Amino acid sequence: MNRTVPSCGTWAPKNCECYKQCQSVHCHSGGGTSECEHHLGSILGESRCFLYRGRSSVQQDSGVPRNGSDDVDWYQVPSQGPLEWLDGKPRTEDRLPEHKKWFCKGSGKEHVTSLEDCPQHCSSRGVCVQSHHGGVRCVCRMGFKGLACELDDNEEACWFSPTCNGHGKCKSGFCHCDPGWWGLGCTRSSAYALEPGSKAVPSRHRLKIYMYDIPSEYTFPGEHEDGDFQRDVNYIAYEYFLRYFLYDWEVRTQNPYEANLFFIPMLVYFYVHNVQNPYPHIQRVVRYVSTSFPFWNRTGK
C-alpha cells in the first residue's frame, strides 16, 4: 500500500486498510469516533473505502481503482464507532450503494479515478479526479503543486516559519533542519542539563518562556481532508503569536532550568476543529509531556 502519499482525509475514497491504520493512529481511546484525538474521528463516518477482491490485507493497494472496475467491493465507514471488521473485511451491511462509489465528498460532478489516468500519475502526491465532462486533473496533497503535483509548494505549508530560520529548508510542510539545528522552525541549537546535585533556578527578574519541542504527530497542524490544510483566518492570532514568539529570544529561552513559564504548542484547533471535543487530544499531549520531560510540574504543586 505505497502508491500514494499517506493521508487520512475523507474527501477522496481510500482503501479500507488505510482507514484501519488511520484509526489505530488517531483513535487510541478505543471508543466511538467522537473520542478520537483527531478531527478524523468525527468525519470518518462520511468516508468511503474499497477492498480489492481476492487479496489479503498486506496485498491491498492504496491506489484508487479505475471508475467502473468490477474487481473491488465498496463500503461506507460506520459513523458511530470504529470500523468493525469480520474476517479481515468491513461488515457487509456497510457496503456502499452503487451511486455513491468513486465520488468525491460534497461533489456530485467529480469522482476519483486511477492515477494512471492523470499526468505522471500525479507524481504519487495526490489523487486523480475526473469531471462529468470526462476531463481529468490532479488534486495535490498539502505541500505540492503543479499539473502533476511535481513541484514543492512550501509557501503555505511552513507558515509558522517559512524561511526555517535560515537553517533548513521547508519541504512538504515541515522544516528539514541543517545539522546542529532542530525544533519548530529550526530555531533550537542548544541543549542544557543540570550538574549533579544542583537545582534549577528560574529567573526572578525577567519573563523566560520555554517551549516544549513535541513530535509532529502530537502538535503539528495536519490535514483535515486530502490537501486541505484547514487554515481559518478566524484563528489567525495564534499564527502571528507563534511566528513572533519563535524568534523572540528576549522572552523565549532554550534553557528549561531558568524558565519561569512553560508553553505547550498544542494547536488543538487543527486536530478537532472548533466544534469537536478537545479533551482527548489535550490529554494525549499532556500525557506525552508529563512522561517525557523531567521538568514537568517540578514545583510539585
Automatic annotation (TrEMBL):
Spans through the membrane: none
One annotated Gene Ontology cellular component of this protein: Golgi membrane
Gene3D superfamilies in UniProt: Laminin
Topology of this chain in the membrane: Single-pass type II membrane protein
Statement: the UniProt record of this protein carries the keyword Secreted: no
UniProt KW keywords: Disulfide bond, EGF-like domain, Golgi apparatus
GO molecular function: glycosyltransferase activity
InterPro entries, per database record: EGF (IPR000742), Exostosin (IPR004263), Exostosin_GT47 (IPR040911)
Disulfide cross-links: 118-128, 140-149
Subcellular location: Golgi apparatus membrane
Disulfide bond keyword on record: yes
EGF-like domain span: 114-150
Family affiliation: Belongs to the glycosyltransferase 47 family.
Protein name, as recorded: EGF-like domain-containing protein
Taxon lineage: Eukaryota, Viridiplantae, Chlorophyta, core chlorophytes, Chlorophyceae
